[in-house]
Design goal:
Helices cover about 25% and strands about 20% of the residues. The chain is α/β, with parallel strands linked by helices. The strands form 4 sheets. Strands 5-4-3-6-7-11-10 form a 7-stranded mixed beta sheet, sandwiched between helices. Strands 1-2 form a two-stranded antiparallel ribbon. The N terminus is likely disordered.
Length: about 270
Amino acid sequence: MSSSPDVLSSNYSASNSVNPDELARRIAELGDWFHNLDLCGVHTAPDHFLGDFPNVKWKDIAKEIPDDLTGASVLDIGCNGGFYSIQMKQRGAKRVLGVDVDDRYLNQARFAADTLKLDIEFQKLSVYAIDEVEGQFDYVLFMGLFYHLRYPVLALDKVIKKVKHRLVFQTMIRGSENPFHAEPDYKFWEKKIFLQPDFPAMYFIEKSYSNDYTNWWIPNRAAVEGVLRSSGLQLFSHPEAETWICTPHHVLNKGRYILDRELDGTL
C-alpha cells in the first residue's frame, strides 16, 4: 500500500471480525487524531471540537464529486489522517496519493487505510515540493492547508501544475463572507476602497491563532476567490462556506505556467 508503513500499521492486519478494544488501543497509540474516521465502528476523534470533522464538510462537498471515480487519479495534499483520501478511494479511484509533512498524520493515514483494506499511497512531502510529483491528477485536494502556509500563493501556484480536471480547495476564512466584484483598475490615490469590509484581504497572524502558531494567513471570501482566479482557475462550484471546486482555465501564460514566468521575471 505504501512504501514505508509505520511499525504499528505494518503489524496490524484487519479482518472481518475486528476487536473494537484492540482497535481503540491501536488508534490511541497513534496520538491525537484531527480527522474523525470510522474504522470498523471505532471512531478516531469522537470528541472533536468541530463535531464529526471532516464529515461535517464532506457531506456538502461530496455532492459535487462523482459517485463513481473508476479510473480516476487523486492527489490529496496535506492529507492529515486520510479522511479525504479514503473517501475518494471508496468511490473507486484507481490511484490515490496522499502527501503530508507530519509523520504522525501519515502514520494515522496508513493505519486507517490498512484497517479498511484500501490501496492508498502515502508519502512524506512538502506542498512546496509538490511539483516534483510526476504527472497530473484528475482530482487534486488542497484542503485545510492554505492558511497554515507562510507562502500560500506560491504553494497554490505549484499545486495548480498537478491539476488535470478539478481542484478541490478549502481554507479557513475570517472577515467578510461576501463576494467582491473588483474594478479593472484603481487610481493611486484611491484609499477608501481598502476600508470596505468586502475588499479582498488576507489577515496575517503574527503570533498564534487558536493556539496554533502555523496559522499564518487567513483570507476573507473575496481574497480566496480573487487568488484562485488570478492563478488561472475558474470557480466551478462553492459547495460550502470554505470550499471551492475549480477547473484549470488560463493557468498557462504564453504557453508557460504563471509561477514559472513569475520566478524568471517574465510575467
